């Protein structure tokens, strides 16, 4: 009996169409529903476009532009800073003037005592008069402008930030319009046969991740696994077949990331490679955690979703052999993972439910049989 891929949406009917936008395999009914969803989203975009057009055509639109609001905010904040600095300076002046007035009062009393004493004794001469005149003039000047108080103004770049208006230019043109994507039928020549998607049929262009190349994490191991070659190699070193687990070092929450794996030694047992939520405990039962997604190599054809296997999911045929080079793509932005085999040129993908497998993700590898060995390239 021939096998067909189930519809990603309903998980009931056979998938016969592939959306080149989201790359989901859909049945006829879900294809129509999916198309209606896209039309609804397009209507919303058109509505937003009309609002923008109305705003552009409105009179005096520039007067209320958000850039003016930013300038007004800067002006208000700068004025408030100046007012605050002025009030603090006035308070300081009041305190200093009170102290200065007290000192002038003492000097004035001393001068009055000398004048009264000189007048009473009548023994003063011209030099005494000149000195007293000088002291009186000095007191008048100090009363008007205290010589001990100095106001300084100096530039302080960190106090009030200057504002400038500039333009940002780019050497590259950015086109807002691109040709629309459409739903394409499955490339299989016969709907009676199980369809297998090939790598060149997917339209995604995934750039290489800027993250440092992943490697195995020595602190995230369960069971008899040994790491070799600067933690790029994981090998099952147990004395009997048993479940093991090791995870990658990197955490993935955004962007698209590629990991290349070489299965240097691989028996067709119950090994699994894929992803798991970083917070999931490292233990024997983690393979059954709802946050575990991936693929099991071998004839059982198990794709792994939410901690359980689904035979033939997404056309997966388990055609993975020893020495195959696989590429695992973690597309956090679209919430999907993809697996490609360079030998067979086949590509498989699984949508990830963020509710069951929240970010951040980690690379997950489970080796079951003695001697199984996987290398991160």
From TrEMBL:
The keyword Zinc applies. GO terms for molecular function: zinc ion binding. It comes from Didymodactylos carnosus. Residues 2-54 form the B box-type domain. Residues 79-142 form a coiled coil. Keywords: Coiled coil, Metal-binding, Zinc, Zinc-finger. This is B box-type domain-containing protein. InterPro entries: B30.2/SPRY_sf (IPR043136), Znf_B-box (IPR000315).
């Amino acid at each position: 009996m021939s096998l067909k891929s189930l519809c990603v949406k309903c998980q009931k009917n056979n998938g016969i169409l592939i959306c080149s936008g989201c790359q989901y395999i859909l049945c006829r009914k879900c294809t129509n529903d999916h198309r209606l969803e896209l039309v609804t989203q397009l209507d919303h975009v058109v509505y937003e476009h009309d609002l923008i057009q109305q705003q552009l055509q409105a009179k005096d639109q520039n007067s209320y532009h958000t850039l003016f609001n930013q300038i007004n905010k800067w002006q208000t904040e700068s004025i408030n800073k100046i007012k605050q600095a002025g009030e603090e300076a006035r308070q300081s002046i009041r305190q200093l003037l009170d102290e200065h007035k007290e000192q002038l009062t003492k000097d004035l009393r001393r001068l009055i005592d000398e004048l009264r004493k000189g007048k009473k004794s009548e023994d003063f001469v011209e030099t005494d008069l000149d000195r007293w005149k000088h002291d009186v003039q000095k007191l008048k000047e100090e009363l008007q402008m205290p010589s001990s108080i100095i106001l300084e103004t100096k530039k302080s770049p960190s106090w009030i930030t200057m504002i400038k208006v500039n333009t940002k230019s780019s050497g590259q043109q950015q086109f807002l319009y691109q040709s629309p994507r459409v739903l394409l039928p499955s490339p299989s020549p016969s709907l009676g046969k199980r369809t297998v998607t090939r790598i060149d049929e997917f339209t995604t262009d995934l750039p290489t991740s800027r993250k440092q190349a992943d490697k195995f994490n020595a602190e995230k191991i369960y069971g008899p696994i040994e790491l070799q070659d600067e933690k790029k190699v994981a090998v099952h070193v147990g004395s009997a077949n048993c479940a093991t687990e090791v995870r990658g070092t990197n955490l993935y929450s955004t962007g698209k990331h590629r990991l290349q794996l070489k299965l240097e030694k691989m028996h067709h047992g119950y090994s699994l490679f894929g992803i798991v939520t970083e917070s999931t405990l490292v233990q024997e039962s983690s393979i059954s955690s709802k946050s575990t997604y991936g693929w099991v190599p071998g004839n059982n054809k198990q794709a792994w979703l939410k901690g359980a296997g689904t035979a033939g999911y997404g056309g997966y045929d388990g055609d993975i052999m020893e020495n195959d080079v696989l590429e695992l793509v973690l597309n956090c932005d679209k919430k999907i993972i993809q697996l490609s085999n360079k030998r067979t040129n086949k590509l498989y993908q699984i949508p990830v439910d963020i509710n069951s497998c929240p970010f951040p993700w980690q690379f997950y590898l489970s080796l079951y049989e003695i001697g199984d060995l996987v290398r991160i390239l």
